[in-house]
Amino acid sequence: PAYKHKEIIAKMARASEKLNILINDIFLSLQLKENLAFNPELIDLKELIEDLYNQTLKPNYEKRGLVLNLQDSDSVEINSDKFYLTIALQKLLDNAEKYSLSGQVDIDIAEKDNYAIIEIRDSGIGLTDEEKPKIFNKFFRGIKAKEIWQDGSGLGLNITKEIIEALGGEISAESEGRSRGSRFIVKLPIG
User: Fold this and answer.
1) pLDDT digits (tens, 9 = 90+) for 57-68
2) Of 53, 90, 162, 165, whose CA is between 20 and 30 Å from 28?
3) CA nearest to 121, candidates 55, 176, 41, 52
């Protein structure tokens, strides 16, 4: 029957999309092992995050009833590679959306000691003490993360960390436990 064919085609399309995301993440992970040629440019972080949200993330946030709250932060400009920084921030904000069942995602941007600090706080599933030290490991996914979002590759946070470190920065993750949300802090050099 025709309805069975539509179901099969829909399943194949979802599987194909999942495989495509996995291949792209593996390719990007391998690229980051090379000595990449970065193209530094002056980037206004608040503007970059607003553009990323409005051009890419907004439909998924709205579909889930989530609000992205970019705090009244001062404008902080850094000299960095916009392409790779956008990938890293998108992966962090994608995770905040995927693992927050409701509520909001708060972002603070500040400058301290010649570093830009980007803090992303979500109201999601949080991290256990056992998960925290492994969260940036390649292919690691927490138990609750696997339950909520089966299609994840386990590469997103690893790629994010590799990009941030390649740009001369640091990233850390904090959480007060399961169902208490997560907080990711990205520290990038200004110059």
Assistant:
1) 999 999 989 999
2) 53
3) 176
